Task: structure prediction
Amino acid sequence: MKAAVLYQANTPLVIEEVDIESPKAGEVQLRITATGICHSDLHNIKGEWEPAFPAILGHEGTGIVEAVGDRVQNVQIGDRVVLSFRPNCGRCANCVRGVPVICEGHKGSRKLMLDGTSRVSVRGQPLFVSTRLGTFAERVVCPEEQAIPVRQTIPPEVAAVIACCVTTGVCAVTNAAQVQPGDRVAVIGCGGVGLNVIQGARLVGASPIVAIDVVESKLAYAREFGATHVLNASRVNAVQEVRELSGGGVDYAFEAIGLSATIEQAVDCLRPGGKAVVVGMTAMGQRASVDAHKLVSQQKTLMGTSYGNARQRIDIPRMADLYLSGRLDLDRLISHRYRLEEINEGFARLERGEAARGVVVF
Ligand SMILES: [Zn+2]
Ligand SMILES: [Zn+2]
Result:
């Protein structure tokens, strides 16, 4: 099969002919139909997250099940599945208490299968894969628990973006923060995830919804997805403007970039009792500082959330159904489509901040 292989940090992905083995017990094989180009992949390309090479990146994917290993119970050949980039063993304490995004049921590298080996290789050399997936490839073998069936009628590009940016953004609002109708919300960063935080806030009836970015085209998208106000942080003091627009600060400030400075701004945007919710992923080891006095005296909360605290088997099919019923706008989210051979162009555009979401379609 064809796959995009990363051999070293900060080099282009190379389209290669790659060998793939059949699924073992508890694993499924998919034909990938679409995969999104996410900022997390860019962190991996830059070598910012525990680099391991050579590797197939890609974690925002969807496909059709074409083979299943022994003891596979929840997925059948022919199913259309959205891939979860987080494990969910179903047995550890965090899974049992309903927080599978921080599943602790598996040991070992998340760049290899659960048995510590790889199913893909190039010229005999085993390849690492992002998040036990590696969706920048025509086929993927992965643990059954990461393949979540959705309705057959969902278009591949839409199913792909549900795998990461939609679920991360919408569920950050509905699950992690549990925003209520009328709550005041600010969203810092209007990329793929930030736009979905905005439409999640619209879905639950938040008001106002203040979107902040430094790129005008992203602020235009933010308005389309439900922002009631937009602020260009390169021209105005965003924190001060948010505090004025919301009558003294917002109830929830979402950070959807992954930078220390904007995490600090999110906390500064809050009214007493407010929560700052960090959704953006920073490089490893980054720290942010807060006004500790106000944190206590104003009872502010600073929290992080991965994958929007989604319960994959409930929330991923729910995102698909919300799209099919017209409550989530995912068609306009997909701004660019690429062939696998054009993937480096997709990353260049993401880095220039031009895309809402680019998707590779097979
Ligand atoms: Zn992602
Ligand atoms: Zn678990």
Notes: The chain is about 25% helix and 25% strand. The first strand starts at residue 2 and ends at 6. The two ends are 12 Å apart (CA to CA). Residues 43 and 124 are 27 Å apart (CA to CA).
